[in-house]
Amino acid sequence: MRAAVLHEIGQDKLEVFEDVEATGFGPGKVRIRVRATGLCHSDLSAMSGVLPQPAPFVPGHEGAGEIVEVGEGVGHLKAGDRVVVCWLPACGACPACKRGQTELCLAGFMNAGTPNFRRPGGDVFGFAGTGTFAEEVVVDAGCAVPIPADVPFDIAALIGCGVTTGLGAALNTADVEAGSSVAVIGCGGVGISAIQGARLKGAAEIVAVDPVASRRESALRFGATKAVSPDELADAKQNVTGGEGFDYVFEVVGKSATARTAYDNTRRGGTLVVVGAGAMDDFLQLNMFELFFDEKRILPSMYGGGDVLRSYERTIALWRAGRVDLEGLITHRVPLGEINEALDQMRTGTALRTCIEI
Fold this sequence. Notes:
- With 358 residues, this protein is an alpha/beta fold.
- Helix content is 30%, strand content 26%.
- It contains twelve helices and 19 strands.
- It has helices spanning 41-48, 95-98, 107-111, 153-159, 162-174, 189-200, 213-221, 233-241, 256-264, 288-294, 308-320, 339-348, and strands spanning 3-5, 15-17, 21-22, 29-38, 57-58, 62-70, 82-85, 117-119, 122-126, 136-140, 144-146, 181-185, 205-209, 226-228, 246-251, 266-274, 297-300, 330-335, 353-357.
- The strands form four sheets. Strands 4, 6, 7, 10, 11, 18 and 19 form a seven-stranded mixed sheet that branches. Strands 14-13-12-15-16-17 form a six-stranded parallel sheet, with helices on both faces.
- α5 runs parallel beside α6 (189-200) and α5 packs across α11 (308-320).
- The longest helix has 13 residues, at 162-174.
């Protein structure tokens, strides 16, 4: 079968091979025929080494498709079922799951260390234990979440990561208060989803911050009340909040520099939500006096900060009701053989989300 493979961490191009085999099928597993997958910035971060991932590996973790085969002991799925790939499934038994913090379950991360593909030259890993830049993938049954028949595969793929992460940051982690002021730094697919979540919660002012003009224009269509470049943020802070700072600031880039900017633009007593996935050696510096004196809440948001399955269901309900726009997030479509074009679209900021059709 075909799959896109990164040979070594640090390379910026993928190579599409036709001799890749999805391996590991057995009890408790399912084989999925991938139909659509989105390109998420986390895939680029894994390729560059910002996020830890063994190589060689097949990127992709935001996918949807249909079940081809189920292993022994899998009773809730059958061949032909339409599913979204969940890269962070909850085991239901660990301390985090028992506390109701299923987004902190580590079971999914354990899968990342086991190869689930093979080529004639040896084993190949799947990013985050999945690897959806492939025609088929074998994953734990808990990674395959059934979706209704009316949800297209491309929409389902977005729900698998970016939309759930962005919406959840506003709805779950921040629980944005109606009438509040919000700034979102970084307006790709996840940032746009955070904007839609803030709008759903009734935020009065939503300022989108991004260096790419086309993304700023898109943010206005998705609910932002103002869109500015990073250089214009100080003026926006003055004009919207009288210089006090925003009630909520979402950092959706994953860098200490933008997290510091987000902190500085959050009002005293306000909330900074860290959504972007950054590097382990990139440190955010805060002095102890400001941390105490400003009483700003710093809330990291992992995969939307809530029960993933419930978040999927909620997103589908909101999409059906026309309350969130998911189709509009897909600005580009490419076949698997043109995957490197999709990477360029992400790096240059020309795409909110590129759908890779497999």
